[in-house]
Amino acid sequence: MFNIRKATGDDLSAVQQVAQQSWHYTYRDIIPANLIQRFLDQAYSIPSMEHRLHNTYLYVVEQDDQLVGFSNFSKTNETGMSHLIAIYLLPAYIGQGLGKSLLQYAMQEECLQSAKEIELEVSTENKRAIDFYQSMGFRIIDEYVDLFFDKKIQTTKMIWTQNQAG
Question: What is the longest distance spanned by two Cα atoms in the chain?
Fold first, then answer.
């Protein structure tokens, strides 16, 4: 059985571990390993994680008392827009419905209920993620080349709109 809840300070090192494993797994054929690690060292440092904990919405999913995934959203701005910063699961838990449950849980929480739109960016080569987001009601609104440090990455921008959610 799984459990989804808001993250606490005690979860930060486990979230770091999920990020480490899932980034190296997900982007192994898209981004060089040294750039993945450089990103992780910055974006998932303890100061960065503490900032996320206090300034964004960070949720975790546990299965059998082990933290196996997380999602992270920006706070909803004055126009009703939130940004899905991250959603990752340990590789062994992908495809079991936990990502769907994690995303649905976060979107039903009071803090995101006021969101009229949720946007995200994803590597265009990450077809599994794009298919997942589309199944959750997101639609593609743009594709462009973005720089990930010095590597050009084809990026897909997607959006979920409240009035078209199913």
Answer: 42
pTM of the model: 0.94
28 contacts: CB under 8 Å, gap ≥ 6: none
Domains of the chain, first to last: 2-164 (3.40.630.30)
pLDDT at 85: 97
Give CA–CA dist 112/70, Å, rounded.
16
- State the DSSP code for 96: S
**Percent of the chain surpassing pLDDT 70:** 98
- For residue 134, the tally of other CB atoms under 10 A from its CB is 12
Could you count the other beta carbons within 10 Å of the beta carbon of residue 138? 24
Euclidean distance between CA atoms 79 and 33, whole angstroms: 37
Question: pLDDT tens digit string along 110-158?
Answer: 777 888 999 999 999 999 999 999 999 999 999 999 999 999 999 999 9
Report how far residue 47's alpha carbon sits from residue 151's, in angstroms, rounded to the nearest whole number.
Answer: 25
Read off the pLDDT of residues 57-87 as tens digits, 9 standing for 90 and up.
Answer: 999 999 999 999 999 999 999 999 999 999 9
Q: Tally Cβ neighbours within 10 Å of residue 51.
A: 11
Contact 160, 117 (CB under 8 A): yes
Let me know: does 121 contact 155? Beta carbons within 8 Å.
yes
